[in-house]
């Protein structure tokens, strides 16, 4: 195998999400068990006006519900599925949801580091998968700083995914308590992202990245930039940290 250690040229590309396959949708109900009046959302809503959501169905994508307007206050992460009451959504019975936000895709593998001291100092714990009970596994639950290297993570105050929660995308948090409001992490898990279909378009030429050749033999597969032809070879699939050509499915 020839190993290339020289880059001859580089061009910028843009992510082009397929409109039909990248939609988000949630249905809110004014009563428990999906009763009463309903409201369907397909994009962020900064103010839920005069609609006391008591149950919900996440039909597509993942969402964050907030108990304050403008995407502030306590967070409640809602993945695809049915939530017959506020408790199922992780809320207290008296919670009133005030805003709702789409969780955008993150094209990176889940990796997170927790530190015992602020500014990423002290003992470091790194995880790539879910942890149901941090303390039970022998880790110090009193965390002072956090760095998300990749993926989308949900951090819970208590073990077994209970208590206050916060959703994190790749970022550095030098003082965890100041950001989250609590100093103890009981459990955490990466958010499972559904399949996302997208295309990669060259910013300068407008051409799309496409796979050409035998999909069963990677040594015979070529990647090239071509004009838009709406073919499956121009559509790429992402899920759980892996990208592949749709034509290979």
Compose a concise summary of this entry.
The chain is mostly beta strands and 249 residues long. The chain contains 1 helix and 20 strands. Mean pLDDT is 86; it is low at 7-11 and 17-21.
Main attributes of the structure:
single chain, 249 residues, mainly beta, Gamma-B Crystallin, domain 1, 4-stranded antiparallel beta sheet, 44% strand, globular
Identify low-pLDDT runs: 7-11, 17-21
Number of helices: 1
Q: How many beta-strand runs? A: 20
By CATH, the superfamily of the largest domain comes out as Crystallins
- The percent of residues in helical segments reads under 10%
Proportion of beta-strand residues: 35-45%
In terms of structural class, how would the helical and strand content be classed? mainly beta
CATH-derived topology of the largest domain: Gamma-B Crystallin, domain 1
CATH class of the largest domain: Mainly Beta
| Shape-level CATH architecture of the largest domain | Sandwich
Order of strands, widest sheet: 1-16-19-20
End-to-end Cα distance, whole Å, is 26 Å
**How large is the radius of gyration?**
21 Å
Order of helices and strands: EEEEEEEEEEEEEEHEEEEEE
Biggest β-sheet strands, sense, barrel: 4 strands, antiparallel
Average pLDDT works out at 86
Shape: globular
Number of domains: 3
Protein name: Beta/gamma crystallin 'Greek key' domain-containing protein
Organism: Micrurus surinamensis (Surinam coral snake)
Family: Belongs to the beta/gamma-crystallin family.
Keywords: Repeat
